[in-house]
């Protein structure tokens, strides 16, 4: 029986990102972010006593989704 060590594993190289997919994710993220930002500005301008309706909450959630897409597109993982 021979006592040979297996070859050391080389580190994995990061996968190349598709430029079109990154641009698409950035574009969709910005599109989703714009209405949320406008909604937040209007809500803040109305003051603390303003009623928050469900549409406002949905639009703000869409804005967070857009922000998540932007972060994902720009991350290098």
Please give a structural write-up.
There is one protein chain. The chain has about 80 residues and is mainly alpha-helical. It has a domain at about 30-75. Helices cover about 65% and strands about 0% of the residues. The chain contains 2 helices and no strands. Helix 1 (about 20-45) packs antiparallel against helix 2 (about 55-75). The chain is elongated, with a radius of gyration of 23 Å. The two termini are about 45 Å apart. The model has no long low-confidence stretch (mean pLDDT about 75).
Can you give me a brief rundown of this structure?
The chain is an all-alpha fold and 77 residues long. It has a domain at 30-74. It contains two helices and no strands.
Total of DSSP H or I helical runs spanning 4+ residues: 2
- Taken as a percent bin, the fraction of beta residues is under 5%
**Broad shape:** elongated
Largest sheet: none
First and last CA, distance? 43 Å
- Work out the number of β strands: 0
Mean pLDDT: 76
| Helix percent band | 55-70%
Structural class: mainly alpha
What letter string, H or E per element, gives the SSE order? HH
Low-confidence segments, given as residue ranges, are none
Rg: 23 Å
């Amino acid at each position: 029986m021979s006592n040979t060590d297996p070859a050391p594993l080389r580190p994995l190289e990061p996968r190349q990102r598709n430029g079109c997919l990154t641009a698409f994710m950035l574009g969709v993220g910005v599109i989703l972010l714009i209405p949320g930002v406008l909604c937040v500005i209007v809500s803040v301008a109305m003051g603390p006593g303003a009623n928050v309706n469900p549409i406002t909450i949905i639009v703000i959630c869409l804005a967070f989704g857009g922000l998540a897409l932007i972060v994902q597109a720009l991350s290098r993982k």
